[in-house]
Write the structure tokens for this entry.
Amino acid sequence: MGLPAVKLQGLSKTIKGKPIVNNLNLEIRPGEVFGLLGPNGAGKTTTIRMIVGLIRMTEGDVFIQGKSIKNEFKEAIREVGAIVESPEMYPFMTGKENLIHFARMIPDIDEDRIHRVMTLVGLEHAMDEKVGKYSLGMRQRLGIAQALLHRPSILILDEPTNGLDPAGIREIRHYIRNLANEEEVAVIISSHLLGEIELMCDRIGVINKGELIAIQEIRGSGKDSGPQEIKMEVKPVKKAIKLLKQQHGVESELTEGLVSFELKKELIPEVIQTLVKNGISIYEVRVTQSTLEDQFFDLIGENVVG
Amino acid sequence: MVNCWKLIHNEMMKIYKQKSTWIMYLSLLLLIVGSGILTFAFSDVETEYSDASWRIELEEENNRLFEEMEEFEFFQEINMSLIAENNYYLEHDIKPVGYGAWHFVWENEILLSIVSLFTIIIAAGIIANEFRWGTIKLLLIRPIFRTTILISKFSAVLLFALLTTIFVIVFSWFTGAVLFGVEGLNPYIVIEKQDGLEYVSLVGETMTTFALKLIHFLMMATFAFMISSIFRNSALAIGTAVFLMMAGNSIVAYFSDKEWAKYILFANTDLSQYRNPYGPVVEGMTLPFSVVILLVHFVLFMLVAWFAFTRRDISGTY
């Protein structure tokens, strides 16, 4: 294990005595896509703004490639490309002029690089159009071009698919996976939508009331994942429960007419075979995806009520 | 290292890419041409005095001015000083130069009030607009200290003020040259100064007048810049700066009998008070005193702007 691309160390923000973000500890590896999930007002944006130095941290620090954002701001931020909330650009300048503007703020970016990133995000034909005339999707893509301009090793995207249509979301997802897989860029994405973030990320951290309450691996969950909750509609029920206990050592119980038990995903076919061989009729098998969803919707529910 | 010039270049690009800036220049252009044509059509300026009879022409001019004075009391003061100037030429046997491009530039000093308004608008917007556009977030996540960004923004305001003033000078000169001709390379004229009438270079006088005016309105622009940095709102910055610019003289006049009136910024912004015949606003003020007061205010404004810009969080709500 090398240096983490991003490391949050006891990151805290208190505003007027009220903790907004409380003691966040987190490491993100190079080439990893990390999702920061939480309801609105959970502290996602504050966390992201602290990572890029827009908001001062009350306590703790953020290390980017080992460099402190607090004490070595220039060196640390040099590694970061970011879109913080919506990708606002200067509407009275063309897409290219906007990129020239940001290119002047970082050493060693030539005209060629500007063309490269414009082509990468598919804006090469709209380069000389005023950004004011861009659609939201085009602006989002220009935002990504701006973030990639200086070949950052860390990309931070705050709600990157806000206001995009499904095609646009798919496109963004594609860029992000590509960057992570091929260029070893570490990506941090924040979102309040689980479905969206699940498709892009390797790992998801759930944040609520300023605290990181769960971290879940998403990728590679096929094999060495823990047991998942399985519900079956079978007949006869009693015989099935007995068989499960005898043949597989699985404790199951009857809830709402369904036999439910915990089992690793890869063992499901075996169990089904056993049941079929012993003359049990199977009407339905349901696998509950993950516990993350439950946790998250609990949070959302709580958020709505509170 | 990114050099500061590149950042200033960026700021200038943002200023001049906006349509509103071009409207400013267009309105200045119309004002210059307009006032030129009005002077040309309705004012009986003497563009050239003849070698043989300039003394007679001046006498005739004086007589005309006397008649005018008797008819309209309103003109008394200005005509008296014009007559005094004419007499100076006669007494010292100097042939006066006629009205031309340089005279026109000198008179267009009045346009600097407009330039100052525009500079205030630019200074008020240069920070606040980044917040309004939301681009401040993209601007401050670059490997550049906020202080450097602030310096580049203020430098851009100075540069805008300078370029716009030069525009007024150059464009006025050419308009004047086309309408009235040129008086020569370095014409001398008689002007009433603190110690009475003096025979001075018109070009030098014009440049000094413009430079002193520039100091005056850059103070107001710095003030707008500070307000813009504190409140991140350009309308508020323009409003307060323009109000103070307009009300400045009244404020000083209102408190003029107080001992501390001379410490008010507006009593010191107009440095031409040490050159013109009327003298300083508050008795006992000197040029070095005013310069110190101006510097203290300038440093104060910049420190507050710097503190507000570099020390505060960029959170979602402005």
